[in-house]
Design brief:
This protein has a single domain, classed as Ribonuclease H-like superfamily/Ribonuclease H (Nucleotidyltransferase, domain 5). It has six helices and five strands, in the order ααβββαβαβαα. A five-stranded mixed β-sheet has the order 3-2-1-4-5, sandwiched between helices. The termini are far apart.
């Protein structure tokens, strides 16, 4: 550390050790620490099969680096479905990865308290998955709200979503080469 005695500009010298704004103000904030942590973005959206009373929730996991969907699950909105969703995420993403989602309590148990971070939409840490939800609703007609198109069977519903996600991931891969 440079002391005042060593510096010819002693009146302008800042004591870096005691007055480092970068350390005390930026990196000590919880939000900034999370941004440095690699994380998968999680979200869920509702749809229906057959009629509006038969709600089906689509759980999605997105890798923000290449913006591809790495896993999805169609089912209810319970803790059991959160566990099934977690099991579909490839093992390579489960090690030292953080998972960012909304504050839905069902995520906490399967994703672990150390690796799961509940964040608000204003944080920007789920921005890509929220954007993907909009893309999905625009391009997959059976997921559009207040529309006449819908799936009559759960198998067709899952198949259409899987088809769209596979095509979307291939398009994303083509854009990166």
């Amino acid at each position: 550390m440079i002391t005042k005695e060593d510096s010819p500009f002693e009146e302008n010298l800042v004591d870096i050790e005691n007055n480092d704004l970068l350390v005390t103000e930026l990196y000590s904030k919880e939000r900034c620490v999370r941004v440095e942590f690699y994380g998968i973005q999680l979200d869920e959206l509702w749809s229906f099969v057959g009629n509006k009373e038969n709600k089906q929730w689509l759980w999605l996991a997105l890798n923000p680096i290449n913006r591809q969907i790495i896993a999805f699950h169609v089912g209810g909105r319970s803790a059991e479905d959160a566990q099934l969703f977690y099991e579909k995420i490839p093992a390579v993403f489960k090690g030292g990865t953080g998972f960012f989602s909304d504050y839905w309590q069902a995520y906490v148990e399967p994703f672990g308290k150390e690796n799961h971070f509940g964040v608000g939409k204003d944080s920007g840490l789920t921005a890509y998955i929220e954007r993907f939800n909009g893309t999905l609703r625009q391009r997959a007609s059976r997921l559009v709200r207040k529309a006449l198109s819908f799936s009559k069977s759960l198998e067709n519903h899952i198949g259409a979503i899987k088809y769209f996600i596979c095509n979307y991931n291939l398009e994303r891969k083509a854009l990166h080469f």
